[in-house]
Amino acid sequence: MIDHRTLRVALLGAGSVGSQVARLLLEHADELEERAGARLELAGIAVRDVDAPRDVELPRELLTTDAHELIVGSDIVIELMGGIEPARTHILDALQSGADVVTGNKALLATHGAEIFDAADQVGASVSYEAAVAAAIPIVRPLKDSLAGDFVTRIFGIVNGTTNYILDRMDREGAEFDAVLADAQALGYAEADPTADVEGHDAAQKAAILASLAFHTHVPLERVHCEGITSIDAAAIENAKKAGFVIKLLATCERLPAEGDDEAAISVRVYPALVSREHPLASVHGGNNAVYVEAAAAGPLMFYGAGAGGVETASAILGDVVSAARRHIAGGVGVGESARGDQPIAEIGRITTRYQITLDVTDEQGVLATVAGILSQGGVSVATIEQTVSEQPDGTSRARLVIGTHKARELALSTTVERLAESVVVERVVTVLRVEGD
Ligand code: HSE
Q1: Is the CB of 202 under 6 A from ligand 1?
Q2: Closest ligand 1 atom to 289 CA
Q3: Is the pLDDT of residue 340 over 70?
Q4: Percent of the chain whose pLDDT exceeds 90
Q5: What is the pLDDT of residue 178?
Q6: How many helices (H) and strands (E) does the chain have?
Q7: Active-site residue, selected from the candidate residues 206, 241, 242, 248
Q8: pLDDT tens figures, 125-158
Q9: Which parts of 87-167 are beta strand (E)?
Q10: Whose CA is nearest to atom 7 of ligand 1?
Q11: Least packed by Cβ within 10 Å: which of 45, 90, 163, 211?
């Protein structure tokens, strides 16, 4: 047997992912040693409370509350604490002390990624983060490494399992949002405070990371257009179904070509979108994630699997640890960030797509003509229209119009929707949904 070097591995955090990472490092130590070419010695696990109950029983002598002491002298630091501080400080300290860093902290990378990658560059260390986007699914490395010679044009990602679970059940059962959210919380899919998931913030962080990798540029989180799914009700799901769509919370990253006075740019956006029921993303059910990548030479690629879960996410962490160990032994800087593209990021008004507009209107002669006139004046061309009339308790009748448009610019579309909302014939703009995946 080869006499391998021993690398000291520090683990920060022993929650559902961290405790599984510790278990796998300990249980598979011999096999991981052969794969990494170095003994991966779990030097310690920094936790807030050594007595807290855990999913996995961990050797007590490895637990410490002194993260700083553990970091100093480690070769690889795995950060799984989450949040911004103290995770950011610990990662910067680890890099300064010459360690390679593995993290799953999407919130930190989406907000302080540039600072962390610069710090790593300065000392020639690596920061790996496969687990930060879509957990077990390999997507960071394919974008950073496998597709480094290609030209990614567009990404559509279902990157939040909680919202996919909710929308999928609404689609299958015709259930209302609040009822399914309550179930998702009871089953442990959704957090007690589900804001980050249902408002799209978690997906926006992942979109910023995916777009930065795909387009070799730095995408600050605040430039990601973000809308959540709380306005999606059973009626919206039903209207989508009737028109041949399913509603998915999509993280879309897209290159926009130069057009007129507009220079070439990228668009990064998260919102509930209509996806054709024929599209491969439509068959992503439950809490699963999928990332659909279109590249100039490779064509369409789809990455699919578990987007959350302790042991699933630990798989991505372990992969990064083995790679970091190999790099640590071989030396060199490894595959670094390629964020020098410095590409302009377009406002949402610049995108062009198809839309479905749902309106409640008064059921009177000439109403349809008025609505059609406003759309036409706004430069929005109608592709389909469906009307359902319902009697109101006061004896009047109301019509619901579901209008499918041809492709339109978002700016023209949103101005037109404002005019519709102001019109006396329109009682309410119920939803405006974009179609993606064409
Ligand atoms: N809360 C996330 C989800 C998992 O529901 O997909 C962690 O990113």
Answers
A1: yes
A2: 6
A3: no
A4: 89
A5: 94
A6: 14, 17
A7: 206
A8: 999 999 999 999 999 999 999 999 999 999 999 9
A9: 100-103, 127-128, 152-158
A10: 308
A11: 90
378 CA → ligand 1 middle, Å:
39
pLDDT tens digits along 394-406: 888 899 999 999 9
Q: Which atom of ligand 1 is nearest to the CA of 162?
A: 5
Helix axes 161-173, 234-242, angle to 10 degrees: 70
Which residue in the block uniquely carries the two structure tokens 């990658």? 117
Chain centroid to CA 48: how far?
A: 28
Which of the listed residues 129, 160, 312 should we mutate to test ligand 1's pocket, taking the one with most ligand atoms within 8 A of CB?
160
Cα of 87 from ligand 1 centre, angstroms? 19
Contact 420, 358 (CB under 8 A): no
Cis ω for the linkage preceding 86 (within 30 of 0): yes
Structure tokens at 342: 């410095």
Evaluate whether 284 touches 304 at the Cβ level (below 8 Å).
yes
- pLDDT for residue 1: 60
The position carrying tokens 């002298």 is: 73
State the Rg of the chain over Cα. 25
Query: Would you say 254 and 266 are in contact if contact means Cβ atoms under 8 Å apart?
Result: yes
Judging by DSSP bridges, how do beta strands 288-295 and 352-362 pair with one another? unpaired
Contact by Cβ (8 Å): 95, 128: no
Residue 370 to residue 374: CA distance in whole angstroms: 6
pLDDT score at 193: 84
The residue type at 204: A
Cα(383) to ligand 1 centroid in Å equals 36
- Contact between 135 and 312 (Cβ < 8 Å): yes
Angle CA 432–232–382, to nearest 5: 25
Could you tell me where the beta strands, DSSP code E, fall in 352-421?
352-362, 382-391, 397-405, 408-409
* C-alpha span between 283 and 281 (Å, rounded): 5
**Residue 373 parent element (H or E):** helix 367-377
Q: CB atoms < 10 A from the CB of 300, how many? A: 11
**Domains by residue range for the chain, with CATH:** 5-136+311-330 (3.40.50.720), 141-306 (3.30.360.10), 351-436 (3.30.70.260)
206 is catalytic: yes
